[in-house]
Amino acid sequence: MQIEFEGQTLECNDDETVLDALLRHGHAIPHGCCSGICQACKMISTDENFCD
Question: In this structure, are residues 10 and 21 in contact, taking their beta carbons and an 8 Å threshold?
């Protein structure tokens, strides 16, 4: 899967979260738990088909 963040298109592996991919690509994303429970990394998807 590809994600677009701050004007860059980044690869997101099938076995990683969007947060993991952003961190792997060197983006400083606020996060606390790395599992989504604390919601510190919460983002909004602009892709209408993201959950399909």
Answer: yes
DSSP the chain: -EEEETTEEEE--TTS-HHHHHHHTT-----SSSSSSS-TT------TTTT-
So where are the chain's domains? Answer: 1-47
Is 30 a residue whose pLDDT tops 60?
Answer: yes
pLDDT for residue 51 is more than 90: no
Q: Is 16 exposed, middle or buried (0-12, 13-18, 19+ CB in 10 A)?
A: middle
For the record, the structure tokens of 42 come out as: 């919460």
Given the structure tokens 């989504």, which residue do they identify? Answer: 36
